[in-house]
Amino acid sequence: MTERPPAAPGTRNLITDVPGLKVGQAHDAAARTGVTVILPDDRAVAGCDVRGGGPGTRETDALAPENLVDAIDAIVLSGGSVYGLAAADGVVGWLGAQGRGYGLVARPGVPPSPVVPAAILYDVANGGDRNWGEAPPYRHLGRAAVTAAGLDFDLGTAGAGYGAMAGELKGGTGSASIVSADGYTVGAVVAVNSFGSVVAPGGRTFWAAPFELDAEFGGLGAAGLAAGPDDWGPAKADPVQRMNTTIACVATDAILTPAQAKRVAIMAQDGLARAIRPIHAPFDGDVVFALSTGRQPLGEAADFTVARLGTLAADCLARAVARGVHAATAWPGVRAWSDL
Questions:
Q1: Looking at the whole model, is its pTM more than 0.90?
Q2: How far apart are CA 314 and CA 133, in angstroms?
Q3: Strands 287-296 and 21-28
Q4: Phi, psi torsion values for 210, nearest 5 degrees
Q5: Mind listing the pLDDT tens digit for each residue in 172-214?
Q6: Which distant-in-sequence residues (6+ apart) come within 8 Å of 3 by Cβ?
Q7: Rounded to whole angstroms, how far apart are CA atoms 57 and 326?
Q8: How would you label 85-100 residue by residue, b for 16+ Cβ within 10 Å and e otherwise?
């Protein structure tokens, strides 16, 4: 019998290792904000789980398993607080012009309706230029991001994480992937803008260290992981900055139902808890989407496979959090992880 290779990151160690998936990003350097778009090649089954106390979302109710629409056309992660929800408008306009979207009946002159769930993070107090009057840049950024979609994209100070903070450190966009021994691919992308800290007190060790693969975020090991009951590491201390949110998407090539995708999203939230301390606070708006590109059947032990996929997604998300902060670059007055 030929032995299968052990589980390992995909070729890029990005969510785009999941077949049938692309990611595009855009940012506005003056406004210190940006957008990340997850774009499947075809309409994809998706689910969503919201844990933070202050979420900002669009079309998440449409993903409930009991509702009519059973697939999405793209997912948007954006900075900008409530203004950032307009990034999905730019994506919807572009998709509709391509003839992509949901429609009960195709009729001449009636465009399809692209289904584009979105979540936003709060980065509007980071010192960027917000003098945009009645024309915030997010619709433009959304269109720029979706038209830039491809297999490779930048980590760190990029996309939806461009203006993010991870506790007192510069936050960013992170991604990671894993290919299981039996051939399922799972990936995650995240914009880390957390109230909580991603590193243990007194050092540089990421909370996600036990899940690191191939020294992907520094290779320091887990020896520095220790904390007292009320000692979080460099979390945000300034009350003005306690407006946060970490937003993410996990994906797999396994064929999932909407209910199964919801379960994977729920399980993937544990990845945030493994990588950020504390998480899901009243002033966080943490949201995780899960989507399926539908390339591989679950097999006879479907529920067991869903459990495995959810666990792999959580581990990928924890790694993605650390990778995003590890790759982030400092701003004047703001330390990056590399400055510790």
A1: yes
A2: 40
A3: unpaired
A4: -60, -15
A5: 999 999 999 999 999 999 999 999 999 999 889 999 999 999 9
A6: none
A7: 27
A8: bbbbbbbbebbbeeeb
